[in-house]
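Late entry, evening session. Most of the bench is empty. Finally got around to the prediction I had been postponing all week. Sequence below, unchanged from the version circulated by S.P.
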Amino acid sequence: MNVGTVANVEDVLQKVAEHKGCGTSGGSGKASCGSAAGQGDLPTEIWEKVKNHPCYSEEAHHHYARMHVAVAPACNIQCNYCNRKYDCANESRPGVVSEKLTPEQAAKKVLAVASTIPQMTVLGIAGPGDPLANPEKTFKTFELIAKTAPDIKLCLSTNGLALPDHVDTIAGFNVDHVTITINMVDPEIGAKIYPWVFWKHKRYTGVEAAKLLTDRQLQGLEMLTERGILCKINSVMIPGINDKHLVEVNKAVKSRGAFLHNIMPLISAAEHGTVFGLNGQRGPTAQELKALQDSCEGEMNMMRHCRQCRADAVGLLGEDRSAEFTTDKIMAMEVNYDLDSRQAYQAKVEEERVAKVAAKQEELATLAGEMSDIKLLVAVATKGSGLINEHFGHAKEFQVWELSTAGAKFVGHRRVDLYCQGGYGEEDSLETIIRAINDCHAVFVAKIGGCPKSDLIKAGIEPVDQFAHEFIEKSAISWFKAYLDKVNSGEIEHVVRGDAEIRQGALTAAA
């Protein structure tokens, strides 16, 4: 959307809120109602922006892919959770970048990926440094892509320090999704997260650095939302440092028109060489993270499907196909960018999506009239498309859904080590999987072997394979209804599960 053509952001946000019966005025009004919102929940202009964006729509992330191109190596701040050799978690991904690209190489890669993965709809620049600390490379890449692949949405993710200086340029390239990492609005807390920032040829440290950063971040956010650009805020949850403070961050970004808030767990391991990793700073547990997300959800949209992607990630969220598109392979590929074929494929994706929503609604109707305070979590092994279509032993992550009489709600994912290694089950991996989904009552899989099934049952987690290759939400609601029937009849007793671990290591299985 170009500068000067944007509707008043307050009007847009109010339309969103009114549509869902919540207001933007007053202390408790939500600006909008969740990344899980569907077509009927959002005004048309917002829906058109998010419907096939896997980061801005939880529903879309089951069907559409994104890619990042690593054209921005330099960074203008230092975060205590970031080691440049491991790339920068500030850009929401803990992994390494396999290779850095020139804008021209990036443009070729985008066309190659878009030709191979027709449901790839979004190009993001998220590092490995900060895109706006490398403005020439970033905007040259956008320029090339806009000319050759105009149907692909353009995004960037920034720490916000240089943002106010580039808002007009961002708007001029029709970039209508921007992510800003904001971990604090209190410089005293910021000084514990950021050792320094580099601004106008000068290095700032301590509280002075943090104040400069937060002022620039909030200014940039206001400037973007005034232009109708959808803004997602990433925040890293650091227990004992900013965990409680993130509620204040949530209120501050909501009041400035942010569309979505993504609170992510700190990834902190000594082998990453970060300050936090080396001094033993822990990340949150699964319950701590969910409790904070739930407390903020009353105020504004919360993103729960983030995978803290690599800065060169390719594919659906939760998968990484970047190894298929190295520079050597791309240069040898015959690229045929066929817009008509892409649109035809995406039309089929929309048919699947409509069928999934219809199946959920049909099953949800069967819960009508059910009265119960029971809420519980289940884990799901999936390869995408909203289906239970992954073997337990092949899963690199499990989606986690909360079930209640209100239906099925996606609340996150858990990365795990592969259980199946060369045809054999790895017992050490099974233990980590059980710890990762220990707060779940059941795990839905397409198939599972006898040994892991037995160990899961011993751990109090029911393996469920009767819904193989069926829609997740429909199946989960059906299982939950049967669960309530068993509780009500006295056949089983509902027991509250314990906490679970969030994996702290890098996602080596996807590298």
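Two things to note before I forget:
The first strand starts at residue 65 and ends at 68.
The CA atoms of residues 445 and 465 lie 5 Å apart.
Will write this up properly tomorrow.
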